[in-house]
Amino acid sequence: MTALTFTKGHGTGNDFVLFTDPEGEITLTPEQIRFLCDRHFGIGADGMIRAVRSRAIEEGAASLAEEPDAEWFMDYWNADGTPAEMCGNGARVYAHYLVTEGLVAPERRDTLPIGTRSGVKDVLAGVSGYTVDLGRWRLSGERLVAARGLDVARPGLGIDLGNPHVVAALAHAGELEGLDLTQQPALDPAPADGANVEFVVPEDPLVKDGVGRIRMRVHERGVGETLSCGTGIAAAALAFRHWGGEGMPNHWRVDVPGGRVAVRMFPTEEGEHVSLSGPAELVYRGTIELPESE
Ligand SMILES: N[C@@H](CCC[C@H](N)C(=O)O)C(=O)O
C-alpha cells in the first residue's frame, strides 16, 4: 500500500482531490483515481488534480514552449479516471493550492501562469477569490439535447473552451428544477469525445445594470451532475450572448447549485478572451492508503 497526502478543495462546490508530485514520480491508474474520487469508498470528488512541474512530464513541454514561466502543470482527471483538457473551477482552486502550499514564489502570486492540456492559463488573485483567463473560445456546431425530465429534445449550441460543451436553453426555472441529471443527457449527433452539457434559464430581467444574469445546471463529462462547472459557466454566458445578439453585455453573473460565478468577455491582441471569477477553498488535508494498481 502507498500512502498519498492530499488536500480537498472546491470552487462553488465543484470539488477536487489535490496532491503534489513536483518531479512527476506518482502515476495513478484510472482505477486509483476512481477510488480517490469515490464518495462512499474513497475521499469523494468530481476530479483529481496532480500538481506537477511542467518540465517533469511530457505534456508540460507545450506549456513551457508557450510560456516559460508556466512552472506548474494542472494534471486534471475526471472522477471516472479519464483525463480532461481543462477545468475552470479547478484552475482557481489549483492556484490557491500552489500559493497556500508555498510552491510559487511571492512575485508570481498575483498573476500565475499554469500549464494545462489546453494551453497556459493565467490565474489572478483578487480580494474575494481568483480570476482565470480561459483564453480563446469557439463555436462548435449545434446538437439536439435530450434529458430526463424534458418533454422534447432541445437545440444545443456547441462551444469549445479547450474542453467541449453543449449549452441548451430551457423555457423557465421549473424546467431547470425538473431535470433529472442522474442519467447522462443524449446528444444528437453524439460528439466523438463526449461533452459537458449545460442547461440554462434567464433570470428576470435577463440584463440588469449592464450585467447578464442566468441560472445553470450541468452534467459533466466523466463525472455526472456537479454543483458547478467553470468552463461550462463561461460556455453558458457565451451562448446567451450569442443568442441575444447585438446589445448583449460582456459581463455575466451565473448562478449554479453551488454558488455564483462571474464571467467577462474582453478583447485581447489575439482576439476575444473569456474569464471566470469566483471563490477557491481548501477544506481538508489528510493521508490515504492507495489500493495497489492491478
Ligand atoms: N469542472 C470543470 C470541468 C472538468 C472537466 C470536464 N468534466 C471535462 O471532461 O471536460 C470546470 O470547472 O471547468
TrEMBL record:
Keyword Cytoplasm assigned: yes
SUPFAM superfamilies xrefs: Diaminopimelate epimerase-like (SSF54506)
Binding site for substrate: N14, N78, G88, N89, N163, N196, E220, R221, G230, T231
Domain of life: Bacteria
Pathway field: Amino-acid biosynthesis; L-lysine biosynthesis via DAP pathway; DL-2,6-diaminopimelate from LL-2,6-diaminopimelate: step 1/1
One Pfam family from the record: DAP_epimerase
Gene Ontology BP term (one): lysine biosynthetic process via diaminopimelate
Statement: the UniProt record of this protein carries the keyword Cytoplasm: yes
Location of the protein in the cell: Cytoplasm
InterPro entries noted in UniProt: DAP_epimerase_AS, DAP_epimerase_DapF
Catalytic activity entry: (2S,6S)-2,6-diaminopimelate = meso-2,6-diaminopimelate
Coiled-coil residue spans: none
Any one GO MF annotation of this record: diaminopimelate epimerase activity
Active site: C87, C229
Alphabetical UniProt keywords: Amino-acid biosynthesis, Cytoplasm, Isomerase, Lysine biosynthesis
Major enzyme class: isomerase
Marked site positions, Could be important to modulate the pK values of the two catalytic cysteine residues: H165, E220
GO terms under cellular component: cytosol
EC number: 5.1.1.7
Family stated for the protein in its record: Belongs to the diaminopimelate epimerase family.
Job description of the protein: Catalyzes the stereoinversion of LL-2,6-diaminopimelate (L,L-DAP) to meso-diaminopimelate (meso-DAP), a precursor of L-lysine and an essential component of the bacterial peptidoglycan.
Oligomeric and partner information: Homodimer.
Protein name as catalogued: Diaminopimelate epimerase
Originating species: Leucobacter insecticola
